[in-house]
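Supplementary Methods. Inverse-folding protocol.

Structures were first reduced to a discrete structure-token string of length 402. This string, shown here, constituted the complete conditioning input.
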């Protein structure tokens, strides 16, 4: 997208990405951890249990991400996104009424399905189809929706909890998800018609079999898994760490979480701009370094001001983390197979995203402290940096497979 003269289709696609990611990721993924301590306190569930719902859903549904990618490549992202948004919003409504673990896990299964069908995967394919030379900027703007959603939801949920209760708060958030995202998706097209930046400029498609036999694919897969695990393991435990371990009030916890997601907005803009200026692997390494480097600050969280420094640095890295993966994939493999490539990568990233918070929660339950969990997350971040450093920088190196 040329920012001086964007066409109407590109504007609609970018706005659609913003609103759908605001809803399906900002609300359901970053908003739900705000309710973890209520489940611990009201139902007596452990930290391991309340963080395991995400793991359960991602593990079961994540196995079908490649199939979802194939469907998106064949049918286009629009219809898939509409179905995913409705599923995601309905799941939050259902989760607001749970009273048993089987219901808890069932609705997390639906949340995971909505995330796969309505979240990053179809949006990445949609944006990659409409943009080429300014793909990083377009992706960065669309991914701002996650930052705004994650920043606003804790504040909204806090106010709803004061006026109503957490059950009604979740129900309202589920309804909002559908109302915010669904209408815009209805009006977009899967592919550009008269855009100056179309997928017609793409080099010949690389067969998917050739891609998965090449070492760049596995470097990207491992690197992204490590970083996503570090991000998820940290983010999904922050509310528990703040409210229960550090004895923060609901207002204090909401303020720090909102600052994390606020900083992620700056991170998305900055990293999207950088990704159009320099090799994407270097941007990816910078993002991973920010994530790994911010986690040690949590050991000093009781020192005044440190937690806000953590929130800012971690938020910048968080802002670029999910966005840079599809940009790197498009750089290496092209957009014609993006659905299938990202379907595979997101399947494994989903496993990392699922197991990491549960592992950190388990280490906290067992040891009485988050120290070991934070150390494990730092280690994951460092592995991610080293792996990405070995990636080729250009697509024409993809043929050097073995």
């Amino acid at each position: 997208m040329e920012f001086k003269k964007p066409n109407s289709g590109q504007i609609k696609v970018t706005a659609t990405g913003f609103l759908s990611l605001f809803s399906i990721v900002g609300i359901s993924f970053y908003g739900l951890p705000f309710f973890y301590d209520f489940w611990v306190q009201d139902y007596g569930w452990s930290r391991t249990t309340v963080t395991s719902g995400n793991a359960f859903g991602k593990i079961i549904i994540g196995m079908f991400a490649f199939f979802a990618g194939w469907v998106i490549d064949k049918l286009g992202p629009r219809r898939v996104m509409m179905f995913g948004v409705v599923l995601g919003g309905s799941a939050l409504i259902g989760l607001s009424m749970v009273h048993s673990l089987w219901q808890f896990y069932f609705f997390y299964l639906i949340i995971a399905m909505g995330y796969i069908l309505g979240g990053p995967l179809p949006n990445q394919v949609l944006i990659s189809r409409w943009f080429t030379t300014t793909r990083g900027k377009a992706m960065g703007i669309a991914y701002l929706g996650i930052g705004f959603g994650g920043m606003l939801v804790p504040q909204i949920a806090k106010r709803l909890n004061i006026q109503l209760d957490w059950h009604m708060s979740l129900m309202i958030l589920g309804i909002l998800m559908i109302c915010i995202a669904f209408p815009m998706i209805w009006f977009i097209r899967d592919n550009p018609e008269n855009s100056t930046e179309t997928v017609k400029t793409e080099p010949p498609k690389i067969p998917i079999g050739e891609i998965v036999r090449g070492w760049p694919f596995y470097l990207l897969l491992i690197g992204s898994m490590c970083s996503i695990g570090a991000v998820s393991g940290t983010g999904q435990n922050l509310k528990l760490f703040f409210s229960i371990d550090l004895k923060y009030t609901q207002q204090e916890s909401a303020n720090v979480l909102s600052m994390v997601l606020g900083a992620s907005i700056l991170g998305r803009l900055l990293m999207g701009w950088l990704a159009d200026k320099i090799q994407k692997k270097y941007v990816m390494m910078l993002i991973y370094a920010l994530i790994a480097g911010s986690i040690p600050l949590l050991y000093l969280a009781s020192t005044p001001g440190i937690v806000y420094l953590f929130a800012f640095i971690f938020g910048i890295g968080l802002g670029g983390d999910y966005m840079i993966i599809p940009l790197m994939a498009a750089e290496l493999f092209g957009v014609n197979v993006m659905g299938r490539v990202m379907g595979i990568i997101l399947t494994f990233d989903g496993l990392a995203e699922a197991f990491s918070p549960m592992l950190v929660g388990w280490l906290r339950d067992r040891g009485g402290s988050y120290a070991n969990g934070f150390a494990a997350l730092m280690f994951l971040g460092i592995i991610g940096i080293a792996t990405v450093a070995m990636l080729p920088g250009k697509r024409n190196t993809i043929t050097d497979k073995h």
